[in-house]
Input
Amino acid sequence: MAKRIRMKPDSPQCSTCMMAQVCLPAGLPEREMTQIDQLVKERVRLKKGDSLYQQGESLEALYSVRLGSVKTQLTDLSGQSQITGFYLPGEVVGLDGMLEGQHNSNALAMEDSEVCVIRLDDIDEISRYAPSLQHQIRRIMSKEISRSHHVLMALGSLRSEARVAAFLLNLSQRLAILGYSSTDFVMRMSREEIGNYLGLTLETVSRLFSRFAREGLIHINQREVKLLDLDALKQLSGQA
Amino acid sequence: MAKRIRMKPDSPQCSTCMMAQVCLPAGLPEREMTQIDQLVKERVRLKKGDSLYQQGESLEALYSVRLGSVKTQLTDLSGQSQITGFYLPGEVVGLDGMLEGQHNSNALAMEDSEVCVIRLDDIDEISRYAPSLQHQIRRIMSKEISRSHHVLMALGSLRSEARVAAFLLNLSQRLAILGYSSTDFVMRMSREEIGNYLGLTLETVSRLFSRFAREGLIHINQREVKLLDLDALKQLSGQA
DNA sequence: CGTCGAATTGACTATTATCAAACTAAGTGG
DNA sequence: CCACTTAGTTTGATAATAGTCAATTCGACG
Output
C-alpha cells in the first residue's frame, strides 16, 4: 500500500532534485528555486496498482511524479471507466477537482512509483515571497488543459491508426525530455489501457501494432517498442 | 470585426455585473469582490464568426464570456480541425497556451458576443492584495481540466447516442445555471459543429435528434430543443 | 420567388467492435 | 524442475456502428 515519507525539515528538496529541470520548478530563476525548496514536505511511495487518490476524497495536494508512472481515470455511474492520462516523472497529477475541493478522478500507480506531495496550503504560503510559483502552477494547469484538448482532437477526429501513431510519438517525445531514448522504450501500459485511453479496443491496438511492425514503421515485442520510421508515423498521425 | 471597448477607470465592473454569480468572481467574499473591480479594463465585442484570438498569437489575457457564445478549436497540420469547447456567458476562454505564452487554439464567436478582457498582468497585480483571486483562477482552470476530461470520457467510451444525449444534458445544466429553462432552449451551434465536437458526423447527429424525437425523448425543430424525458436521456448518457 | 446554407433522410460502405481461439511469458505449487 | 495456471497478447471470422455519398426538404433572406 501507499507509504508516506516525511522529509527532514529545512533540507532542500526541489533545488537539488534531479527532476527539477522537467518538473514544477522548470524555468524558475535560481533565486526563487531555493525559495520553493520547502514546498515538498512529504513523498508517497506506491506499489504497482496502489491508489494515490480516489474520486470523492478531499483534495489537499497536487502530486508530482518523481519515479515510475501513474494513470488517472474517470468512472461513470454505469461502471464504465476512461483513462484520462498517463503521467511520467516530472508530470503533475491531481489538477482536476479544485472547483469542489474534491478529487473527481482516481489516480493509480502503473508500476512501483514515488510522488512528491505539494500541499495547496503550502503553495499559497510560499508563493507570497516567491511570486513566480503561481505562474508555474498556472503554466502546469494550462499544459494539462492543452494536453487534454489535444487528446480530444485525437479521439474526435483521428482514425484508429492515426491515434495509435500519435500515441507512440507522444510517448517518445516525453521520454526524450526525460533523457531516455526517443526511439527505443518500454511501454508501461497494457494494450487494454492504451485502447481505453484512445477510445479503441485492445484488439484494435494490438492489430495496429502488428501492422505497423509488418510495414516496417516499428519493431514491437510485448511492451518493448522501437520506432523505426518517425516520419511515416508523423505522417499517419496528422502531424505530417 | 472585433471591437475593443475601454472601461472608465475606477468604475466598478465585476461587483456590479449581473454575471458575477456565475463568472470568475463567483463565491468570492464581499470584501475581495470590490478589490477585483479593476480587473476588467476592457471588453471586446464580436460579431458572429469573428475571431477572438488565433493559434500562435501571444497570450496576454483570459476572456470571460459576458454575452453570446464562443467556440474554441484546434487545427492540425493536415487541416483537420476539432472543436474543443463551446463557452457560454460566465465561462472563461483562453486557458490553454500559458506554457509557451501563446495561444494554441482559435476562439470564434458563434453569435454576436461580448467578452471581458482579463489581462494576466492585472491578475498578478491585483492578487497581491486579493489573494483569493489566485484561488479563483486555479478553480477555473481546474474546472476546464475536469470538463475536458469528461469530454474525453464521452469520446472514448460512449456510443453516438450516449454522446448526443450527454451533450443535450450538459447544455441544459449550463443554461439552467444562467437562469434559462433547462428543458427548452435554442442551440447556438450547427449540426456540423455538434458532430465535430462529439467526434461524429453531422448526419449521425441529425439522425439521433430525429430518433430521440420519434421516441418521445425530445422535441426538436431546427435548433430549438425541448427536453421531454430527462430521465431517459440520463439513462442513455450513462449518468443513469 | 429564387437562392443558399443547413438539416433531414435513404442506400450503401468502411471501420472498428465483438466473440472466439490459440499462443506467450511469467509465475506457482506439487 | 516441470506441469499448470493466469494474465496479457495476437489473430481470425463475423457483426454492428457510424461514415460516406446523394437526393430532397426546409427556412431565411434578399
Observations:
- Chain B has a mean pLDDT of 94.
